[in-house]
Amino acid sequence: MANELIPLAAALKSMKRANSGMTWIQQKHVAAFLRNLAVAPDITHETFDGLPDSRTREYVRGLLTEYGVLPQRDELRMRYDRWAAEALERVRDPQNREVIRRYIRWHHQRRMNLMEVARGTFLRQTGSHRGHRPPQLAHRTWHQTA
After folding, report:
1. Each residue's pLDDT tens digit in the chain (146 positions)?
2. How many CA within 13 A on the CB side of residue 43?
């Protein structure tokens, strides 16, 4: 097992409801995902981004981020960037693509940036930016956005 995964393994071992964790881990797709992760040469957000999109991938990413294996990153921004790139790829006509690209940047990205400023202000005011959140809140917040 990669040394980076030791904090995650320790967290899973010390769960209050170990039965729930074991039930989740024993699912074939989860076990296969964790086996592949354990032998991965490096564990980064980019590694995860290269894997097929799945709830398991995002749940494990959330756990790894929560336990400090992966650094914090704005997952909402990453999903938005993926959506924007995929939306542009679907437009065949170069002139239309340019119009759509400008609209995405001017309208959607501008709104996204305003939301980030508001969210950053909230996080600074509450101290949540330091990661001092109860695990239940972190899990609940992640679960609502997934």
Report:
1. 677 778 877 877 787 887 777 888 889 999 998 888 888 788 899 988 888 888 999 888 888 898 888 998 888 888 888 888 888 999 999 999 999 888 888 887 888 777 776 666 544 554 544 444 444 444 444 444 44
2. 25
**Cα-based angle 19, 33, 133 (whole degrees, multiple of 5):** 60
Q: Are 131 and 71 in contact (CB under 8 A)?
A: no
- Any residues with CB less than 8 A from the CB of 29 and at least 6 apart, and which? 54, 56
Cα–Cα distance between 111 and 133 in angstroms, integer?
27
Q: Is 133 exposed, middle or buried (0-12, 13-18, 19+ CB in 10 A)?
A: middle
**The tokens of 139 are what?**
């899990």
Closest CA to 136 of 20, 45, 2, 50: 20
Distance between CA atoms of 62 and 55, rounded to whole angstroms?
A: 10
Q: Which of 134, 120, 140 is nearest to 74 (CA)?
A: 120
80 residue type, one letter: Y
